[in-house]
Amino acid sequence: MTRTQLQAARDGTITSAMERIAHRENCDPEFVRDQVADGQAVIPANVHHDALDPMIIGREFSTKVNANIGNSETTSDLEEELEKLHTAVHHGADTVMDLGTGSDLDRIREANVAHSPVPIGTVPLYEAVKRAGSPEDLTTDVLLEVIEKQAEQGIDYMTIHAGILLEHLALTEDRKTGIVSRGGSIMAKWMEAHGEQNPLFQVYDEICEIFAEHDVTFSLGDSLRPGCIADACDDAQYAELDTLGELTRIGWDHGVQVMVEGPGHVPMDRIAENVERQQEVCDGAPFYVLGPLVTDIAPGYDHITSAIGAAMAAQEGAAMLCYVTPKEHLGLPEKQDVRDGLAAYRIAAHAGDVANGMPGARDWDDALSEARYAFDWTEQFELALDPERARSFHDQTLPGDNYKEARFCSMCGVEFCSMRIDQDAREASDDGELKELKRETDLESSSAAEVNRPPVGTHDTSAVSPVADLDGVDLEREYPKADD
């Protein structure tokens, strides 16, 4: 019988996944095992996901970033979804959630699992509604059938909206934006139509049994997350959080790994409160936050409004950040939106790790700063979070190879480059001899975890199915090779 990572950890077993994670996080395997055993970290690793390069989510490890992709009834097909998956992994996504609600869901889901070295998450409620025809027609049988099927397909973690209860609905009546979670609104509509308790709550034990069989990780959905800063931290949000704490402990009792989802839209002065409260109510289970968005005024720029909150949440102890793209609230993200959202969130995650003093996290910053002061443009590009973007921006105005050794860029020009002026002044004060510029940071020997060292998006892809093997899809793409 399959043992989950949690059950193995409790038994004192260090699994091969834990060994790989210890290598990637640059820590002791026993520390990985201990954190998983205590429920303070999760390893989303469905036993059927053969292409997976194991990773860990927990506040004592490097902050992780999730990218949402998925089709809708009006846009995107299998080829586009695989393109988004590749873009997400290439630009540093630690996990990817397939939130598709359109057609061909099974084929897209199976392709994502086969071609992804990172964990894949889903919201099975979406497919269940499509199968039932409407939220009101959902049944517990349909919900369990869909959940079990997706578990068998290799989905590593699932958002389960079991925390929104019938008694919570009245608490949302005075909100400015009501219930903004897709799953939350679906469950609320079902409960209002039937006058009964949330069916996912009713069959939660059965879901736990399915998850334990396939080692699927719970991502307990925040169905009542605030959809604007005016609704943040209200009675509805916190009532559901209390239920999520209870569900966390039930999941653990079944030997199932659990992380908890969080808001949403939260003003900056209340982000710490949200993280602290979740950690207390849910006994330290990893907190997985969407944003939070710290202001509501910037449609088209919500990757920025949310990355501000995400960096603050990471500093406070959030374990994983769900990216927001510039298209949030406006449309389905495309490839470029995925790239922009991931850049914003990789910055937020890394900034949080630097602020928290994670081992070696600042070494990347120091190495790039040293290259910048030395006018080593090639090294700057290679160390950049997005090397292609950095090189492209530089070369838009100074494209020639000779400018790769120039002591200036087009922002200040040769006469007003502050670092050149500073270096010239130092040379003059040292009797005409400039002391050798310090290049003392060695990233090869850094104690930083993989995600805090360049390049991003490097995973072990040896078990990933070639995209060319998928019938009807012609994508000439390869993931970067893992650097062990």
Automatic annotation (TrEMBL):
Q: Which GO terms describe its molecular function?
A: phosphomethylpyrimidine synthase activity
Q: Where do the record's region annotations for Disordered lie?
A: 427-484
Matching entries from Pfam families are given as:
ThiC_Rad_SAM
Renumbered to this chain, the Basic and acidic residues biased-composition regions fall at 427-442, 474-484
- For this protein, the Enzyme Commission number is 4.1.99.17
Please list the reactions this protein catalyses.
5-amino-1-(5-phospho-beta-D-ribosyl)imidazole + S-adenosyl-L-methionine = 4-amino-2-methyl-5-(phosphooxymethyl)pyrimidine + CO + 5'-deoxyadenosine + formate + L-methionine + 3 H(+)
User: Top-level EC class, please?
Assistant: lyase
What cofactors are annotated for this protein? [4Fe-4S] cluster
Note on how the cofactor is bound: Binds 1 [4Fe-4S] cluster per subunit. The cluster is coordinated with 3 cysteines and an exchangeable S-adenosyl-L-methionine.
Q: Which residues bind Zn(2+)?
A: 265, 329
Q: Where does [4Fe-4S] cluster bind?
A: 409, 412, 417
> What domain of life does the native source organism fall in?
Archaea
Q: Which pathway does it operate in?
A: Cofactor biosynthesis; thiamine diphosphate biosynthesis
Task: Give me the residues that bind substrate, please.
Answer: 68, 97, 126, 161, 181-183, 222-225, 261, 288
Query: Which PANTHER family does its entry note?
Result: PHOSPHOMETHYLPYRIMIDINE SYNTHASE, CHLOROPLASTIC, THIAMINE BIOSYNTHESIS PROTEIN THIC
The protein's job, in short, is:
Catalyzes the synthesis of the hydroxymethylpyrimidine phosphate (HMP-P) moiety of thiamine from aminoimidazole ribotide (AIR) in a radical S-adenosyl-L-methionine (SAM)-dependent reaction.
Q: Which family does it belong to?
A: Belongs to the ThiC family.
- Output this protein's name: Phosphomethylpyrimidine synthase
